[in-house]
């Protein structure tokens, strides 16, 4: 979820919370992190080698299209920045073979020294800003609290992803 600029980070928060509500409705466990830039990324823990790139693309495209239909003035899947018209870019195209996503706790190559930082969902709100997640502040967070992604693999067993995917493929 990529807002047009740092000041519009609240668009990424808004989208993330809407996606979280939908995932909760479908009983899907999800995890969230900052991108280390101006965006937010959401993860659904899945069993390794169980789903294809096509499977996850069907799923992510559906949710991105859903958000765009609900609030076309806020969200877009348009790849070209000049055509986004100050809307949040929902990048489902990044979820395919050969594409990469920044790893948790990785520094980004920006002048602010921002870190891709896992968050607890209850901390995702309008008061957080990307500039809160610098090397010193993230190190301090790790000393004071557990990594929100620590139990990532434990979440896999209870996922209802296959049920949701089957519903999407049958519609």
Helices and strands in order:
Layout: H1 9-25, E1 31-34, E2 40-43, H2 53-70, E3 75-76, E4 88-89, E5 118-119, H3 135-144, H4 161-170
Parallel strand pairs: 3-4
Antiparallel strand pairs: 1-2, 1-5
Helix pairs in contact: 2-4
Folded structure, characterized:
InterPro entries: LigD_pol_dom, NHEJ_LigD. The chain is an alpha+beta fold. It has a single domain, classed as DNA primase, PRIM domain, CATH 3.90.920. 32% of the residues lie in helices and 8% in strands. The strands form 2 sheets. It has a 3-stranded antiparallel beta sheet with strand order 2-1-5, with helices on one face. A two-stranded parallel ribbon has the order 3-4. Strand 1 and strand 2 form a beta hairpin. The longest helix has 18 residues. The mean pLDDT is 91.
Widest sheet: strand order?
A: 2-1-5
CATH class term: Alpha Beta
Q: State which percent range the strand residues make up.
A: 5-15%
What composes the largest sheet?
A: 3 strands, antiparallel
Number of helices: 4
Query: What do the pLDDT scores average to?
Result: 91
Q: So, CATH architecture?
A: Alpha-Beta Complex
Radius of gyration, in Å, reads: 16 Å
Protein name: DNA ligase D polymerase domain-containing protein
Domain DNA ligase D polymerase: 1-149
Organism: Psychrobacillus glaciei
């Amino acid at each position: 979820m990529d807002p047009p600029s740092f000041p519009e980070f609240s668009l990424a928060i808004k989208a993330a919370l809407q996606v979280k509500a939908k995932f909760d409705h479908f009983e899907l466990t999800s995890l969230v992190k900052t991108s280390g830039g101006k965006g937010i990324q959401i993860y659904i823990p899945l069993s390794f080698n169980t789903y294809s790139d096509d499977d996850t693309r069907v799923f992510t495209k559906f949710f991105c299209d859903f958000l765009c239909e609900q609030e076309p003035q806020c969200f877009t899947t348009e790849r070209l920045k000049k055509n986004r018209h100050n809307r949040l870019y929902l990048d489902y195209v990044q979820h395919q073979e050969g594409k990469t996503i920044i790893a948790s706790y990785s520094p980004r190559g920006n002048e602010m020294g921002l870190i891709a930082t896992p968050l607890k969902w209850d901390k995702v709100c309008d008061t957080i800003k990307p500039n809160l997640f610098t090397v010193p502040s993230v190190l301090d967070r790790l000393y004071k609290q557990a990594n929100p992604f620590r139990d990532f693999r434990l979440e896999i067993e209870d996922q209802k992803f296959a049920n949701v995917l089957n519903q999407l493929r049958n519609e």
